[in-house]
Structure formats: C-alpha cells, structure tokens
Amino acid sequence: MDIFLHFLGTTAFTTMTMGNFMMIIIGIIFVTLAIRKDYEPLLLVPIGFGVIVGNIPPVPGMGLSVYDEGSVLSYIYFGVSQGVFPPLIFLGIGAMTDFSTMLSNPKLVLLGAAAQIGIFLTLLGALFLGFTPAEAGAIGIIGGADGPTAIFLSSKLAPHLLGSIAIAAYSYMALVPVIQPPVMKLLTTREERLIRMAPPRFVSQREKIIFPIAAFLIASLIAPGAIVLIGMLFFGNLLKESCVTERLANTARNAMIDIVTILLGFSVGASTQAQAFLTPQSLLIFGLGALSFVVATAGGVLFAKGMNLFLKDKINPLVGAAGVSAVPDSARVVQAMGQKEDPHNFLLMHAMAPNVAGVLGSAIGAGILWSVLVN
Amino acid sequence: MNKLNLSYDNIIAGNGISISITGMLIVFAALVLISLFIAMLPKLLPPLEKLFPEEHHHGSAPKKEKDHGPVLAAIGYALYCKKTGTLPKK
After folding, report:
1. Is residue A327 helix, strand or coil?
2. How many cross-chain Cβ pairs, A to B, lie less than 8 Å apart?
3. N-terminal to C-terminal alpha carbon distance within chain A
C-alpha cells in the first residue's frame, strides 16, 4: 500500500499546475490547426506535440525534461540550444531551392532586403519595452520570418528566451496566410494588384552553379557572422545545381531535413514548460512578433511601390510581401492574392525571387546582430 | 529584462537607432552587391565559355552527336540515281 501511495505521489496529477494545463491546451490547438487548417503541419504537429510532452510535470529526481541534465530530451534539445539544427535545416533548404527566378530578375532581390526592416524596427520596439540589447536582437529576428534563423540567433544572444522566440516565429510563420493579406490589401490599389510581370528569362546551368559560390563570398565577406547559415544554404544549393552530387542533395533535401525538423520541432515544443514559458516576457515577445511580421510585409510592399516610380517594367507590389523569408508560404499568399483579382495572373514564380532573397537577407541580418550584440 | 520599463531612453542606451540603421544598410549593401553580380553574370559567361567550354563540365548535357544529315542525303541520292540509271556520266 505504501508503494502504491508513493507512486500516486509521483503521478503528474498531483504536480500539474494551471499553467501546464493551459500549455497542453495550446499544444492541442497547434496540432488541431495543423491537421484541420493545414497551417504548417510539418512544424506545428511536432511543436504542438512537444508542447504537450514538455508540460507533463517531471518527477523530481528523474531526468525527464529538456532542462534536466542527462535526460534523453536534453540531448535532443542540445541541437537547439547550441544552434546545431538551424544550419542543417539551411543545408536542406539550399538543396531544395531553385534560385532561377532570382537570377532572371535581380532587381527583385532588393525586395528581400526591404522586408528586413521588420527585424530592425522590432529590435527598437523590444528595446523600448525594456529588453536588453541582446534580447532585443534575438526578438527582432522574428521579423525575418525565418524559424531556423530565429532559433540560431536566440541560442547565441538570449538562450533563456529561445522557447518563446521559436514558438512565436513558427506560429506567425504558420499564420502568414492570415497576417499578410490584410496588410497587402491595405497598401495596394486594385490597379496595382492587377499588374502583370514579364515572364522570367531562361537561366543557364552554369549561372546556377556560379551563383552559390559568388553570393556566399559576397555575403560572408560583408557579414562574417552569417557564415554558418549562409554557408550551409549555398553549400546545399551547390550540391543541387552541380548535377554531380545528386545523392547528397537528395539526402539533404529529403531525409536529413525531415529528421532535423522532427527533432527541432519536438524539442522546441518540449522546452515550453509553463514555469519557464508563461511569463509576461513571452506575451510581449508574441506581441512584438506579430508587429514584426506586419512591418516586414509592409516594408516589402511599400518598397516595391517605390521601385515602380523608377521602373519601366512595373513590379506587382504584392510581390514585395514575399520579401519576408517564410518560404514558400508568403510567395503562395502573393499568388493567391494576385489570382483573386485576376485569375490569369501568375505571380508565384516572381514572388519566389524576393522570397529566397528574404532568406538571405534575414540570415545576413542575424549575422550582423550576432556580431554587434554578442558581447 | 527584469521588469517592464517603457522608455525611449532604453533605445538610446542600447544604441538601438545606430544598430538598426547600420544593420539595414549592411543588409541592403550585401543584397545590392548580390543583385549587381547577378545582373553582370550573363556578361561574364561568354569569356568564361571560351576558357572552360560547357562540354568539358562534368554535369553538362552529353555532347551532341554531329549531324550527318546532308551527307546521308547525298549518299541516298547517289544510290537512287545508280539504281534508276540516272547517274550523271563523266
């Protein structure tokens, strides 16, 4: 009987807090949104289930949670806390990204730069609210709309905020189809949304092979802090475009990225124990995150409108919204918005150019913030 | 962050404005340079093609077989003429 009573004392029912219960509900909502609404299921299912797992109160003395030294989950979480997983995800992204549309229309690269204003205005907002500069930098990168970059930078600048930042970044990435359209509609006229863009030119294989090497050199010489992310991105792309390492490219873009996504999503979710996650800081981070996505979208759209003042071949300003690096969701949103106005207007290929440029821009932005704020 | 402390002084104390402006300028500089490189790439390719012709590359498409169409047509015509006795005499 004593053993039974002792066992009852270790069950999670006795140690469960209201916070844990709320987080489990949030985890279930994530899983439900992923399954029923198809919002980023590859991310929200592992994260959502991880949230549920992470909020079962651990038994004292047993190494169970991601924060317990030597626990299985802590070893998986090591890839997140030390910034190992994000570069591996970038390798896979590089191996699946086709830079042709960007190579065929280089001026669209600037839209990927313009949308990064979300990062730097959010940094100002976070500083205004009283976060330290390092914390503000880690929060600001949510505006880059790039989950792996956000995790990488927060693991370097503000590890204690990693869970909140990662969840905010991935939640808003999943909500891109909800957040972006009202901003895009508000900032453009119907005539602008109807603009048709010239089809992209043919890009030779040789251009595609030279590009990752040259672009890596340019980006990393300017912002060496971005070497890890940009290097892996372009290495993956070179594997794809060289045509002689097809097996490696295949592994990077399929099996490897899937394994890393599972481990990253699950362990990030499991790191959101209510005691560490349900804080006023997390609420502020979520607020700033939403603001950063809105600012980034507006930055891209307004910059496209500005460019149109000087261009003969006009850009559809909706394409500017794809400057946030949520690949390929924001490009899909642009396509959907464009087709709502004109079912025969195909903007997806054009939108992929600022979209992949946005990935470069946010990684470079992360490299800059890391170099400036690391001390 | 220990407690909520809304103040513009935090931005000034954290060098927020200079970090933001410098950061944005560097991101733009990097992507403008990449954009310029991409724009120049088609002009760089022809001289490169002379140095390293595409067929020497590992991953390039297999070398196209020479087109023997005209020669085959001439042989075919000659055989036809011989068979029908219309081969021109010397």
Report:
1. coil
2. 140
3. 57
